[in-house]
Amino acid sequence: MRMMREPFFTDKKILVIDQSEKKLNDRTWCFWEKEAGLFEPTVHHQWKKINFFSDEFSSTLDLSPYQYKMIQGIDFYSYVKTEASKHPNIEWRTEKIKTIYSNNEKATVETETSIFTSEYVFNSILFKEISSSPFGAGVRKAKYLLLQHFKGFAIQTKEPCFDESTATFMDFRISQQHGTAFMYVLPTSSTSALIEYTLFTEKLLENEAYETVLHEYISSRLSVSDYEIVHEEFGVIPMTNKSFPLQEGRIMYMGVAGGQVKASSGYAFQFIQKRTEQIIQSIIAKGHPFIKRSFTDRKFKLYDSVLLNVLSKNKMKGDKIFTRIFQNNPPERILQFLDNESSLYDDFKIMQSVPSDIFLPAAFYELIRSI
């Protein structure tokens, strides 16, 4: 999309390869932003207020100047492919990629039927599979690896049950027996909502376990008994302090493969947007897409490692940590912190929210280890 918006790329041959035709609504992205973004036409719903619930603290929070937005996968895919069809320099192929490699002058992509060479390859695939993790051998070498996994039901009710102006951002009033666990409730009308059960743990659950918790939550907490499940989704995201490469040779890494998943929260959509914008501007201004990690990148990687340290070693429960943060900070500061955009002052205020006797030793350990 960013290439299509820039005249610089009009005469460049661009090939998009995906093993899927992207005709299914296979995922939902939620994120927050202040202004209309690149994919604003695909926003399915947005909320100006969110609920936070835990056993110790609950509140409805005004997100101003942010809005919390939802994009459905099928709308995103259709929007991009429709726009791409207007550009004769863009070709779309549905093939499974076997391998990618690079030398000093060219990058090469091998599919099951073809070989392509180009000046640069932008890759979002993690190739090396291992039995203990769906995210490749490199991730296994990380100091910490939790999995953020979630199962969602999009439901339709006959009677009005939801306030479509307010989303439930985190509801920790469910069992924490497996690890950090919470529910999202994202109402898109008075009779429809996406309810998602999310966990931060080392292992996945059986499918029946997710469904049991979802049904129990819908009936007991939301007091909804008559509903139809119109769509289901399931996903797994790595929460790891592994340093994924930004680039190798003429291969630029994107998404999970490029480390654009925030290790402490699993949020990725907006980090991918920042990464793609940086790449495009670098190509236009400097003639290449190579980008170095900034001080801010390294700062927030340290913060993420500290939280993973605390969660992985069970020094403090995740629901207690997020409760302290939401109880003691305004929403704008929290969202800036989660977006890696907060100032050192705001970082300090966030840190003041959590117990220093737990987090300071973890921070010192991670700082020493990173040097």
Question: Could you give the order of the helices and strands?
Answer: HEEEEEEHEEEEEHEEEEHEEEHHHHHH
**Major sheet size, sense and barrel closure:** 7 strands, mixed
* Strand order in space, largest sheet: 5-4-13-14-15-12-16
Derived from helix and strand composition plus strand pairing, the structural class reads alpha+beta
Number of helices: 10
Name the helicity range.
25-40%
Radius of gyration: 21 Å
Write down the overall mean pLDDT. 93
How would you characterize the overall build of this protein?
The chain has a seven-stranded mixed sheet, with helices on both faces. It has helices spanning 2-5, 73-84, 137-140, 207-221, 269-286, 295-312, 318-328, 331-338, 344-352, 356-370, and strands at 14-18, 28-33, 43-47, 49-53, 58-62, 67-72, 90-94, 97-102, 107-111, 115-118, 121-123, 145-157, 166-171, 180-189, 192-201, 227-240, 247-248, 251-253. The longest helix has 18 residues, at 269-286. A hairpin with a 3-residue loop joins strand 9 (107-111) and strand 10 (115-118). The protein is globular and about 60 Å long. With 371 residues, the protein is of the alpha+beta class. The protein is built from ten helices and 18 strands.
Secondary structure elements and pairings:
Layout: H1 2-5, E1 14-18, E2 28-33, E3 43-47, E4 49-53, E5 58-62, E6 67-72, H2 73-84, E7 90-94, E8 97-102, E9 107-111, E10 115-118, E11 121-123, H3 137-140, E12 145-157, E13 166-171, E14 180-189, E15 192-201, H4 207-221, E16 227-240, E17 247-248, E18 251-253, H5 269-286, H6 295-312, H7 318-328, H8 331-338, H9 344-352, H10 356-370
Helix pairs in contact: 6-10
